[in-house]
Design brief:
It is built from 6 helices and 9 strands. It is of the alpha+beta class and 362 residues long. The strands form 2 sheets. Strands 3-9-8-5-6 form a 5-stranded mixed sheet. A hairpin with a 3-residue loop joins strand 1 and strand 2. The chain is flat, with a radius of gyration of 38 Å. The termini are far apart.
Length: 362
């Protein structure tokens, strides 16, 4: 037997002996206690509940925002149609000419009919639960406008036939004040409470539409005396020197006076307010002087506009009026603000009625 054979035999016996050697019990890895398993399950359940709750809340928030957006979109459409009636009425009363006199009754009937349709649309809007009460005031606003136009038609037609313009103007002014009161009602009882409701619900993406049917200056008795005289084609014939000039434009509440030819910086806002000063450079007292502001954002072809009226300004005096209803967002490029005062009837020189300002909103 060779040396290698002996070595192979020894190795065989060693392996066989090792195979026959009794083995002890295998050690199992330490297992988790029942309490630890319960805690893990509880944590998993809590995490699952939190994730589910957050998902449900996110869906509910999106649904709530969508509901508000849909509601105020319908409100905005109704308000725009109603405001258009008010603008047509204001334009007709501010510039009464022969064509207005001939079509006065038909125009008043048209305004009344259109507003009645708008009021019907307002009543058909379904409001979110959180705005049920406020929506009643919104509908009431439209109803007030229908009531005002219904009373205005006979009042104005009777006033044209009356000999006493002061007494006749008083009744017309009363009906116009109802129309103006609708703007106040909308602001106090609908717009402001609705905006608070949105804030309480954490909704920042939605804004309450604003409205303006007529200017309060148009509803004054003295203004209506002038309107009646012009409608009758008599006493209000323009004589003497007439003319107004734009003096200054201030941003509120900062009080900063805007400068032409310079870049003005203003804080962006969804409710900009400008105070416009107008000087009477003529020989007669001017009433109901229109002030028009247009704001053109960078890259936008269509400007946003707002207007107000100076109730009365005597010769050589300066009067001011606040113009609201414009909004602007912060941006890199400056916007263009154009302000125009007048012109008044009989004004020959209107070059000093207009000013333009470059404004960067920050």
């Amino acid at each position: 037997m060779s040396f290698f054979e002996d070595e192979e035999e020894d190795q065989f016996f060693e392996e066989e002996t090792e195979a026959r050697r009794p083995r002890g019990p295998r050690r199992r890895p330490p297992s988790q206690s029942p309490l630890a398993r319960v805690l893990i399950i509880l944590v998993a359940v809590v995490v699952l509940v939190l994730i589910t709750s957050l998902g449900i809340k996110s869906c509910l928030d999106k649904r709530k925002v969508s509901e508000y957006q849909d509601y105020f979109s319908q409100v905005e459409q109704v308000v725009a149609e109603s405001d258009a009636v008010g603008k047509q009425l204001s334009d007709m009363l501010q510039k009464p000419d022969e064509s207005v006199r001939q079509q006065l009754e038909a125009k008043l009937q048209e305004f009344q009919a259109t507003q009645e349709q708008v009021t019907g649309k307002a009543a058909a809007i379904k409001a979110p639960d959180a705005l049920k009460k406020e929506n009643e005031w919104f509908v009431a606003t439209m109803q007030m406008r229908t009531r005002g136009l219904t009373g205005l038609r006979p009042a104005l037609l009777n006033a044209i036939e009356a000999k006493d313009n002061q007494a006749a103007a008083s009744q017309v002014s009363y009906e116009l004040m109802i129309l103006f009161s609708s703007d106040v009602t909308y602001q106090v009882f609908f717009s402001e409470p609705a905006q608070r409701a949105l804030e309480n619900d954490g909704v920042t993406e939605v804004k309450v539409p604003q409205t303006k049917f007529i200017e309060p200056a148009l509803a004054s008795q003295q203004t209506m005396v002038t309107v009646l005289e012009r409608l009758k084609g008599g006493a209000a014939q323009v004589t003497g020197l007439h003319g107004v000039a734009l003096v200054s434009v201030k941003a509120k509440p900062s009080g900063m006076t805007l400068e032409q030819g310079a870049e003005n910086e203003l804080k962006a806002s969804d409710s900009l307010v400008f105070e416009v000063e107008v000087e009477n450079q003529g020989e007669a007292t001017e009433t109901n002087v229109k002030v028009l502001i247009s704001l053109t954002a960078p890259g936008s072809p269509d400007p946003r506009t707002a207007e107000a009226f100076v109730a009365e300004v005597a010769p050589g005096q300066i009067a001011s009026v606040e113009v609201t209803g414009l909004a602007a967002e912060a941006g890199g490029e400056p916007a263009l603000l154009k302000v125009e005062a007048g012109p008044v009837p009989g004004e020959a020189n209107s070059q000093n009625n207009i000013a333009e300002y470059s404004i960067r909103f920050i």
